[in-house]
Specification:
Elements lengths: L1 H29 L4 H28 L9 H18 L5 H29 L5 H26 L3 H22 L15 H6 L9 H21 L2 H8 L2 H4 L5 H30 L3 H20 L3 H27 L8 H29 L2 H19 L8
């Protein structure tokens, strides 16, 4: 559990610090007049790559017969590829260069994610999965705080920030790779299969696997709400809340740290409590629904009161709800996977519901912010999506 928490922290830091801070800073310098569109373009293309790369890496890890196990080669290769790819972003001075640099790092991050999420059902009994999922999930917001502090306090700006995050990723991955053994898959256990059958395996019939399809859809809705609501947080504080006018002498990047810390504290507080309660009661759906309702209430508050005090309250609410959601929903998903032999592939398909929102969110958020009502419309949209996903969870039949 310590190892999986560390490697998760390193992976999420390498993903979220660029998206939340470094890319936003870099693109604001390169193209200040079109920073929203530029950030949407970069993150959208990266998410499109992840959309393909994560399930593909997961499926290939199911068939990996390395003496180091099925998942560890993908974790190690992903960490190394990301550590080599992130520094490429540092010297870029054009939007095209940033796009190309992010396209180098994103496939490696996807390979890491595919290997990591499959480790949970591979190693963890059903009765402990919500708690272990809490370790993986709680490190996401911790990574945002940790990465934000590193690139705004320890170092300054993208040029030194990207190499620092790359080095951190390797250091966090090493203990898990060194200490956790993967079961080795014998070559005789992997049947020969054509590429056409291999690719066809990614289609999981919603009719035959109804609960899996519902879990995928509800994850998509909640994550789309999360992606659209968090993409422009830095710009929201600067342009809507007018943080720098409210607090002369302070920059919006510094202000961003406060709601992020509140959000993170809420997640850490409830992720483990929610996981333990869910594992003890053996119930998942009711907790996911309640968590989604709390997240939606935070977004709704920002829609009606886009102010600094409201932003702090909303951050706390969304953190409290998301903490329960990330631990319990992930445990729920491991119960609706179609087969045990293809966990990497099936969890990769589930992770499309994590990646696809980051493809859709830039276009949706840009239209809402610039043409359809601004930030109040953006947060009303995120609230409605999250609540819809939370309610639909109740239609899953095979999980209590």
């Amino acid at each position: 559990m310590t190892g999986i928490a560390l490697v998760s922290l390193g992976m999420w830091t390498a993903l979220y610090t660029p998206v939340q801070v470094l890319l936003a800073q870099q693109l604001e310098t390169i193209d200040p007049d079109s920073k929203e569109s530029a950030l949407g373009l970069v993150t959208g293309i990266g998410a499109l790559i992840a959309l393909v790369a994560t399930p593909l890496a997961g499926a290939l890890s199911d068939r990996t017969t390395s003496r180091f196990g099925r998942r560890r080669p993908w974790l190690a290769g992903g960490a190394l590829g990301t550590a080599l790819g992130l520094p490429i972003l540092a010297p870029q001075t054009t939007v095209t260069g940033v796009v190309l640099g992010w396209c180098v790092a994103q496939p490696s991050l996807s390979a890491m994610l595919a290997g990591l999420v499959a480790e949970v059902p591979d190693h963890v009994p059903v009765a402990q999965r919500a708690v272990v999922s809490a370790w993986v999930g709680a490190t996401q917001p911790l990574a945002v705080v940790f990465g934000t502090v590193l690139v705004t306090v320890a170092v300054s700006g993208p040029r030194s920030g990207y190499p620092l995050i790359a080095a951190l990723l390797v250091l966090c991955a090493l203990p898990f790779l060194w200490s956790v053994e993967d079961a080795r898959l014998p070559a005789s256990a992997v049947p020969a299969v054509s590429w056409s059958r291999f690719l066809a395996g990614f289609w999981i019939s919603p009719r035959r696997h109804r609960d899996f399809a519902l879990a995928w859809l509800t994850r998509l809705l909640v994550q789309l709400g999360n992606a659209t609501g968090t993409l422009y947080l830095l710009y929201f504080l600067r342009d809507e809340v007018r943080y720098e006018q409210r607090f002369p002498g302070r920059e919006a990047e510094q202000g961003l740290l406060t709601p992020v810390v509140l959000y993170t504290a809420g997640i850490v507080l409830t992720a483990f409590i929610g996981g333990m309660v869910s594992d003890r009661l053996g119930r998942r759906k009711s907790l996911v629904t309640a968590a989604g309702a709390v997240i939606a209430s935070g977004s709704a508050l920002l829609a009606v009161r886009p102010t600094w005090p409201a932003a702090l309250v909303a951050a706390g609410l969304m953190g409290l709800g998301y903490g329960v959601y990330i631990s319990v929903d992930q445990a729920l998903i491991t119960r609706v996977l179609p087969t045990a032999d293809n966990r990497g592939r099936d969890l990769g398909v589930i992770n499309i519901a994590n990646s696809l929102p980051h493809v859709l969110a830039p276009a949706i958020a840009a239209v809402l912010v610039t043409h359809l009502g601004g930030y109040p419309a953006l947060f009303a949209f995120t609230s409605a999506l999250t609540l819809l996903g939370a309610v639909l969870v109740q239609r899953i039949r095979s999980v209590p």
